[in-house]
Structure formats: structure tokens, C-alpha cells
Design a protein that fits this description.
About 15% of the residues have low confidence. The protein is an all-alpha fold and about 250 residues long. About 75% of the residues lie in helices and about 0% in strands. Helix 5 packs across helix 6, helix 5 crosses helix 8 and helix 9 runs parallel beside helix 13. The N and C termini lie far apart (about 55 Å). It folds into two domains: about 110 residues, no CATH class; about 140 residues, Orthogonal Bundle (Tetracycline Repressor, domain 2).
Length: about 250
């Protein structure tokens, strides 16, 4: 909370240049006393950044990233608890502790917030996929099948995804994936391709690689969004296709 308060008061307390290591201008040192809402602990954190020689731009960049992560965490929690339709920017602000003015500096609308939540969730899945492909660096098929299994298992335990797909919930957020799927689909294919090229010892020709990745990603996303069988059976089906395509 303190770091968020620091960032929220940046406009009230302009960031000065560091004059010397361990030295901070007095006008910022007294910011906690002059600025409503900036706690002594928050002021101490700012002072510490100067004492350690942390540059002001880097310090505020870190705080801004922290604020955005807290915002997305709060939104994901609320969607998982009550569904997308009941999500409001006011509730996100209350849950995250981020002032309304600062909230709208990060996302201009509920739709943009939904897109950001989906994008971050995709990035997290891609990190797990990258780990599986790296662990199977000698075998493309094995790496892709491990990645499929991970994605389906993680998806089945994901409260956010369950809320999006739940009966009567998440229809607007689901539309971010179904009516405009290209952004998520392209991000997923690009991520898997990058992992394959970075970690695998050998790769098939470009056309075969693109065909396999396109099929695997589309089938995996389809089974995550609209599952008709269990994870084990879905993985086996996709594995059959992968092995056929790779010969």
C-alpha cells in the first residue's frame, strides 16, 4: 500500500534529482508531513531509494509496475469470485487500494482491463509452456505434448478461466477470446514458436513447424475454452495429431 501511495502522490511531490549519494532534498524528505495520505513508511521508502542511489525514473517505474500488477490481481480475483458482469472499476479500486484517478491512468475502461487480464494470463501460460519445451529439448513432439498437458491441467484449475466459462458468467470477457481470437491466438503461436526455436536441438522445415504449431495451439485453446472430454483424453487426441504431422 505504501508504494502505491508514493506513486499516487508523485504529481503533488515532483521528483527531484539526486544531488549526492545518501542525500535527498529537504522538500521531498518532508513530503510525508505535507502530503495527505503519504504515510511515514512510504516517505521512508522514498528516502531509502535516494540513500541507496536508486535513480528516480527507475524507482517510479518499479512502483508503476507494482501498481499495475496489483490492479490486475484484484480484477482477476473479483472475476473469479463474482464473474465478469459484476466487475466494476470501483470494486477493482477498492480491492486493490489504488485511487480512482491512478486506476484510470493504467486502464481507460473495463474492456481494456479485461484485455490486460487476459493478456497477462496468456503470458503466464506461455511461461509454463516454455519450461516444458525446454525440458524436452531433444524431441519436438514430446515437448509440445508436455506443453499441451500443462495447459489443459492449468486451465482446469484456473478460477479466472472457470469464471469466464461459467454458466451465466463472463460472456463479455469470453468475447475477448471468441470474437477477437486472433490477438490471443497469435500471441500463443508466437510464444510457442519462440520457445521451440530457442530450446529444441532440431526442428522440422518451416512449413511443417508452422502447421504443427497452428494445429496444436488451436486445438489446445479449443479444449480449454470448450472442453468436451477430460484432460487425459484431450491430451491423447492432440498427441495423436502431433505424431501424425511430424511423421
Amino acid at each position: 500500500m505504501d508504494s502505491i501511495q508514493i506513486l499516487a502522490t508523485r504529481d503533488l511531490v515532483p521528483a527531484p534529482k539526486i544531488t549526492a549519494a545518501g542525500t535527498m532534498p529537504a522538500r521531498l524528505a518532508t513530503a510525508g508531513a505535507r502530503t495527505p495520505g503519504l504515510s511515514p513508511a512510504a516517505t521512508e521508502a522514498v528516502e531509502l531509494s535516494y540513500a541507496c542511489g536508486v535513480s528516480t525514473p527507475a524507482f517510479y517505474d518499479e512502483l508503476r509496475n507494482l501498481r499495475r500488477e496489483r490492479l490486475l490481481d484484484a480484477a482477476a480475483e473479483l472475476i473469479g469470485e463474482d464473474g465478469w458482469e459484476r466487475l466494476t472499476m470501483t470494486r477493482v479500486g477498492e480491492r486493490s487500494g489504488i485511487p480512482r484517478q491512478s486506476l484510470y491512468k493504467e486502464v481507460s475502461s473495463k474492456a481494456e482491463l479485461g484485455e490486460a487480464v487476459v493478456r497477462r494470463e496468456t503470458d503466464r501460460f506461455l511461461t509454463g509452456i516454455d519450461d516444458r519445451i525446454r525440458a524436452n529439448h531433444t524431441d519436438l513432439a514430446a515437448g509440445l505434448i508436455a506443453a499441451v498437458r500443462f495447459s489443459l491441467e492449468a486451465g482446469s484449475r484456473n478460477d479466472l478461466l472457470k469464471a469466464v466459462l461459467g454458466a451465466g458468467q463472463g460472456s463479455e470477457l469470453l468475447s475477448l477470446l471468441t470474437s477477437r481470437p486472433n490477438a490471443v491466438l497469435a500471441q500463443a503461436i508466437d510464444g510457442v514458436r519462440e520457445s521451440a526455436r530457442r530450446h529444441l536441438d532440431t526442428l522440422p522445415d518451416e512449413e511443417t513447424l508452422e502447421t504443427v504449431l497452428d494445429c496444436v495451439v488451436r486445438l489446445t485453446m479449443s479444449n480449454m475454452l470448450q472442453p468436451t472430454v477430460g484432460v487425459k483424453r484431450a491430451t491423447t487426441r492432440i498427441a495423436t495429431i502431433v505424431n501424425c504431422l511430424l511423421g
